Amino acid sequence: MSAFDAIINHKAPSPWELFKTNPSLYIASKLYNSLSQQLLRPLSTPVRTICISDTHNTDISALIPPGDILIHAGDLTHSGTPCELQVTFDWLVSLPHEHKIIIAGNHDTYLQTAEGRPCVHTWRDRGIIYLEDKAHTIQVCGRTFKIFGSPFTPQHSNGAFQYPHMGITGTPSHWSVIPNDTDILITHGPPHSHLNLAGLGCRALLARIWELGRTHQPVLHVFGHIHGGRGIKNMPWNSAQSIWEDIVLKKGGWFHTMHLLWAMLWGGWDNGIRTVAVNASVVRGPRDHDILPPVVIDI
């Protein structure tokens, strides 16, 4: 296991460990999470979305509840072999969901080979939509969603679908491929500062989502990759979120924490516009022994 794989599979530290390591960052995270995890008002016609990621060749079909949309955010396999891919494909095909949208991940090496790429073209005939830097539009419950999916993550060791680190805002980014009118975003890796454990998310992806958020806010962003970052968070696209992201980048600081508190109390937190971010990693722990259920989101 590489050093980066060890981080990805590392168990999330306890609250006490987080506090001891960086008290100001811990307090800031508690402040921000207390509001970013507030639930939005239910919609009159909700669309039940079943979110999974990083199954790593584990058949979790028995754990998956009914829903309108099933999303798999990559790492379908563990070693990336054709045999593993077929096993995962078979149990995904067996599920009854009307819309099944999947992407690959850094473990799914076969899907980046000349032999593996053609097989995904046959999946649509079996009810599975595979996206690789592509968009697909669906209609469900009388609503229309444009869904964009990408398997790419920043370069770390060996693996499939990786790009060089480009974290500075303004630097040409892989993520310019995301359409401006995306409703549901699926990426294998997380954006920086959100459900990414130790700040391992992509800054360029975060910058692109901010661009989307200023004009057409995605209703949902599903990802995985960082197993210990599993969870749900609302991204409100306001000053408090921007300050929180700056705190993570600078690794804390009491002045920045007080700035966050000020923004939350007097900066107008709830502007009614939020993107639900979901790290839907299914396996975690040593050797992927811990199996967690899907994350269910009504959008």
Number of strands: 15
Q: How confident is the prediction overall: mean pLDDT?
A: 85
Distance between the termini: 37 Å
The major sheet is characterized as: 6 strands, mixed
Question: Which ranges are low-confidence, i.e. pLDDT below 50, for 5 or more consecutive residues?
Answer: none
Count the DSSP helices: 7
Rg measurement, Å = 19 Å
Residues in helix, %: 25-40%
Structural class: alpha/beta
**Shape descriptor:** globular
Task: Order the strands across the largest sheet as they lie in space.
Answer: 5-6-9-10-12-11
| SSE order | HHHEEHEEEEEEEHEEHHEEEE
Into which percentage range does the β-strand content fall? 15-25%
Task: Please describe the topology of this protein.
Elements: H1 3-8, H2 15-21, H3 23-36, E1 48-52, E2 69-72, H4 82-93, E3 99-102, E4 128-130, E5 134-140, E6 143-150, E7 153-154, E8 162-163, E9 184-187, H5 203-213, E10 220-223, E11 231-235, H6 239-250, H7 254-266, E12 275-279, E13 283-284, E14 290-291, E15 295-298
Parallel strand pairs: 1-2, 2-3, 3-4, 6-9, 7-8, 9-10, 10-12
Antiparallel strand pairs: 1-15, 5-6, 11-12, 13-14
Helix pairs in contact: 2-3, 3-6, 3-7, 6-7
Q: How would you describe this structure to a colleague?
A:
25% of the residues lie in helices and 20% in strands. The chain has a six-stranded mixed β-sheet. The longest helix has 14 residues, at 23-36. Helix 2 packs across helix 3 (23-36), helix 3 (23-36) runs parallel beside helix 7 (254-266) and helix 6 packs antiparallel against helix 7. Strand 13 and strand 14 form a beta hairpin. With 299 residues, the chain is of the alpha/beta class. The chain has helices at residues 3-8, 15-21, 23-36, 82-93, 203-213, 239-250, 254-266; strands spanning 48-52, 69-72, 99-102, 128-130, 134-140, 143-150, 153-154, 162-163, 184-187, 220-223, 231-235, 275-279, 283-284, 290-291, 295-298. The chain contains seven helices and 15 strands. The termini are far apart.
